[in-house]
Every structure is written in C-alpha cells, then in structure tokens.
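Slide 14.
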Amino acid sequence: MLALLPLSKGPVSYELGVVTFHPYSLCMLIVLPFAIWRTAQKPSSYGFRMIEMVIILLALSYLQSTLLSETMLKSGRLAFHALFIPIVSYFICKALIRNEKEYLIAMKFLIGSILLFSVATIVLYIQTGLRPVVLEIQPIGVSALVIVAFFYFLYNKNQWNIFKITGLLIVSSALILSMSRVYILFSIVSPVFIKLLKKKAVIIWSLMFFLTLTMTLVFTYTVEDYSMAHTSADGAKTMERMYDAKHVLRALAGRAYVYKVALKDFWDSVVFGVGIRVGEIQVTPHNYHVEWLQYGGVIGYLLYALIFIFHAKNISKYIRNDSYLQVNGLILLGTMTNSLTNGFMHGIMPYIAFIIMGLSEARVNIHKKNIKNQKKI
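Slide 15: predicted structure.
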C-alpha cells in the first residue's frame, strides 16, 4: 500500500460522485475493514493512546464545519483528501504493523517507491529544464516525498554500501531539482535538529509551534507593501528561483497578503473556523498556522497542535536509541517546517505526516511489546 503513495495524486484516477479516487486512497479504503477487524480481535495490541482521542475530536470538529459549510460538497471533497485519507493511513499503519519484520518490509516498499519517483523527477528535469511536476504531484509535493527517502538514506543506521550511497545520490539530486528552498535549507541544518529531537522532542515541538505562530502573526501585521506580490513570476520554475532575491521578496509579499485575507475568515468564525475550502485568493494560505486557524478556528488549531505534541511525547522514551524514530521525527519536523511557508492541508503533505506518525506509533508498540516479553523471561 505504501508503495502506491506516489500515485496518491497521479494520472490514474476513478471518479465516484464528487470524490476522486487514486490507487493509494482506493487501496487504503479497501484494506480499512481488515484493519478494523484485526484491531477488534485484539484491541490491546493496537495501543490506544491520547493521540487517537485527539485525532477523533479533530475529525468530528471538521465534520461539523464541513456540514455547515456554504459549499458542503466542495469542502467535503477537500476534507476527504486533506483529513480523512491521512487519518485512515495513520490508523492502518499502526494497526497492521505489529513487529520489526513487518515494519522493515513496509519501509522497504515506501522508500523503494520514492527512489523510483526520484529517478522520474531527474528524468523530467533533464527533458524540460523546469521544476518538475511528477505524476501530477506539484513540485513542493515532489520535495515532500523525496525528503522522506533522503533522510532515510542519510541517517538510518544501516551499514553503508553501494545501494545506500547510490540511493542517497539519486534522492539528493531529485531534492535539488525540486527547487524547494525550505526543504533544502532544512536538510542542511538537519544534523542539529536530529540531536535535539533525541533529547527534547516535546520541548522542540512546543517551542516550534509557539515561536513560528508568533513569527507568523508579527510578519502578517507588519508587512504593508504588497507591490512585489503582483510582479512577474518569470523564472519561478527554473533554477533562477534558488538565487534571485526578487523571487524570495515576491513570495514573502504574496504570503503576507494572503495571510491577512485568510485571518479575516478566522476572526469571522473564531471557535470552529470556516471549514476546509478554496479561498478567494488561492487554494491554500501557504502557512499551517493560518490554515488551521482559518479552516478549524481555535478548536481545530489546538487539536492539530496537540496531535503532534502527544506524538512527540509517545516517542520521546524510545527515540534516543531508535534510528527509525529519529528519521521519522526529522521527516515530520521537516514537513511542518516547510508547511510554515507552503501550508499543510493540501497536496501530499498530510498524507506523509500521518503515515510517518502511524509508522512511529507502530514502532512504539513494538518497543513496548519487546519490553513486556523481556520482563516475562
């Protein structure tokens, strides 16, 4: 199933009513009943924790805002891809992975598919010379996928060999060609963050939410000159965007304007937000703080933040000695760092975040099971 993740948006699709199914989402829905049945057979092995309660509350919160939305069908279609399938992905990963062998098999298929996806990214760039759109996944989604394999090859404790070196070279090239300024910068400073995550995961996540929310609000209400936002976007799809200052200024001015417009929706519906919808300006406000406040209000924002903080708490006991949890934590932190300037509830970002959390929660269960077995011995 995880090997189908690059096909979660792609050219292969099936229309059913107002919902578009892709191989990944269709496969997840087919397997969902089996995951529920398996969990019901032995609920204790699933390891129900506070994070699941918060995820349920988040789903219910967005359900009511979707049902009350002025564009209920459109909001429902967006919620299906931004919330429902990611939550199902989380549940299935945690429910079906019960031991180390199953976990390693899942990772091999996930990383293998992203490796092939990275090759396609490189080939497309060679053909066009432009920032690649691969299998209908937009460039920022390409970066979000590639970074998963990049951190896996770079930080996993497996012995270095020709396959690992080749894989790292391929995904590194794909990451550079995807031209994501934030992901590339985050990958450079990632050694610092992986050390911090091993020691203070909960504190890191709490500080990140507090500091970046403060920065977002200050930035939104201090920038007044939006003239750069309306300048030409020529070169935005070439390597020029990586070094030309005008592209950065244009992006910042545009984001400040969009943030202010989106936050007006929040102030109109502070408690539950306006629901998931396409805004007047564009598909996303390009900032997960603004996005969560606009779409989910204070309730939705707090629930989303608690999911990540509770997850950090769950893995904090085991992450110091588990390279897989360290890599997963770095992927999750990188995804949210990028989402600070690109948004979270669209594209492939929510898929990746919930899959990674599901995989890590499954590893926590594996550790607890191993500890329990050792005590019996």
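Speaker note: The longest strand covers residues 14-16.
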